[in-house]
Design goal:
Order of helices and strands: EHEEHHEHEHEHEHHHHEHEEEEH
Largest sheet: 6 strands, mixed
Bound molecules: NADP nicotinamide-adenine-dinucleotide phosphate
Number of domains: 2
Low-confidence stretches: 340-361
CATH architecture of the largest domain: 3-Layer(aba) Sandwich
CATH class of the largest domain: Alpha Beta
Distance between the termini: 30 Å
Number of helices: 12
Strand content: 15-25%
Shape: globular
Radius of gyration: 21 Å
Helix content: 25-40%
CATH topology of the largest domain: Rossmann fold
Number of strands: 12
């Protein structure tokens, strides 16, 4: 069927694994997208700018080869200001030591210069969510970040669109594939460093794998969840188990009891509104929903006052799932922020519940 599809111009900050996979997916889904995506520019530290002023490239034109390089004076912020894009897709590094900078700054510049933003980068959303959301509202732009937690598992879009009026009291999650894979392999008798090497070969371990094993990665994801679902929590207030001090003990206890050793995230909001978060190495008994997860699987349980416990599982997630989260956000931005007609949703009707999740565009 032929019908008119408006062009949506995209600029990529960062052009690594996730960006390339996203462009592949845009290419693969081109026929069913409600818009025509066109890449107006790409920026990375080493490559500099890749764009041709006044021209945008369709995904099939750059799946194989990038457009010609062109350096423009002024650095990344100048690029974001000048690029003729409707949406900036921010896919640079989290830089936890720098509290999500410079990526957060890229997002600020994009919103201030009238671009919607999709990011898979947990750094800015962990450390600057409230500020960035306010900026998005001020400029009547949308900020989406589905892939920041659990590689594209639809958590935020589920809460945003499918759980109106719902209170979430507790969240439990297996949010780090590497830690849980390494624990399961060690439980099967594989030495720790061999298990880490396997996770690296599969492309899932952080360059510094201790960030996975010691719960730093999961703790940052806790911050994102707390920010979006409830209220901010500081990194230093999240309890974490050091892997080397506790893993062997947990593995032994799991073997003795018939359970599984796992790194489990727990976030709770108490009656008085306080938020507590922990990333613990623990034994998961048979009968617990997480007992069924293995390998690189990720899972999340939302304890709600409307739907009981919702258990979401992502089996063996990879780049495709992360890229799909970016694509889903892009489609959402198109439908709500860019498409000329906008249907009100149930969620819009409840300002109390939607305080942190709706945007005003
Ligand atoms: N990979 C996954 O499975 C996954 C899953 C969920 C979320 N994420 C998140 O998605 C984001 C992208 O991940 P990735 O795997 O695609 O990373 P990647 O392959 O390492 O690519 C990162 C890209 O960002 C660029 N970059 C880094 N710092 C920059 C800066 N300060 N300014 C401009 N460009 C910069 C790099 O450019 P140079 O090469 O020129 O330095 C590179 O092109 C990260 O935030 C990651 O945490 C990834």
């Amino acid at each position: 069927m032929n019908y008119y599809r408006p062009v949506v111009r995209l600029a990529f900050m960062g052009y690594g694994h996730v960006a390339r996979e996203t462009i592949k997916l845009l290419h693969e889904k081109a026929a069913s997208l409600p818009f025509s995506p066109a890449i107006a520019g790409i920026y990375t530290r080493k490559l500099g700018y890749r764009w041709v002023p006044g021209k945008a490239f369709f995904p099939h034109e750059i799946v194989q080869e990038l457009p010609p390089a062109r350096r423009v004076q002024g650095g990344p912020h100048k690029f974001i200001e000048r690029v003729q894009a409707d949406v900036v897709i921010e896919l640079t590094h989290p830089n936890i030591d720098e509290r999500g900078e410079p990526a957060a700054g890229y997002i600020r510049t994009a919103l201030e210069t009238g671009k919607h933003v999709v990011t898979a980068n947990k750094g800015p959303i962990a450390f600057h969510y409230a500020e960035l959301l306010n900026l998005a509202r001020k400029h009547r732009r949308l900020l989406r970040f589905e892939s920041t937690v659990a590689d594209g598992l639809p958590i935020f879009n589920l809460v945003r669109y499918s759980l109106p009026l719902t209170r979430i009291g507790r969240v439990r999650g297996l949010l780090n594939s590497t830690a849980n894979y390494v624990l399961s392999r060690m439980a099967a008798g594989v030495p720790q460093m061999r298990a880490v090497a396997e996770a690296r070969a599969a492309g899932i371990a952080e360059a510094d794998f201790q960030l996975d094993l010691d719960g730093w990665d999961s703790a940052i994801k806790c911050m994102v969840l707390a920010n979006v679902l409830w209220q901010p929590i500081e990194l230093e207030n999240i309890t974490r188990d050091a892997f080397d001090q506790r893993a062997q003990e947990i593995i032994a206890r799991a073997a003795a009891s018939g359970g599984k050793p796992q790194q489990v995230v727990t976030l709770t909001r108490s009656e008085n509104g306080d938020v507590h978060a922990a990333v613990r190495l623990q034994v998961t008994p048979p009968g617990d929903p997480f007992y069924s997860l293995s390998g690189y699987d990720l899972g999340l349980i939302l304890e709600t006052d409307t739907m009981g416990n919702l258990f979401l599982v992502e089996q063996s997630p990879g780049l495709r799932q992360t890229a799909f989260g970016v694509l889903a956000d892009l489609v959402d931005i198109y439908l709500r922020g860019i498409a000329p007609q906008r249907e009100p949703t149930l969620f819009d009707a409840d300002p109390e519940q939607s305080a942190t999740l709706t945007d005003d565009a």
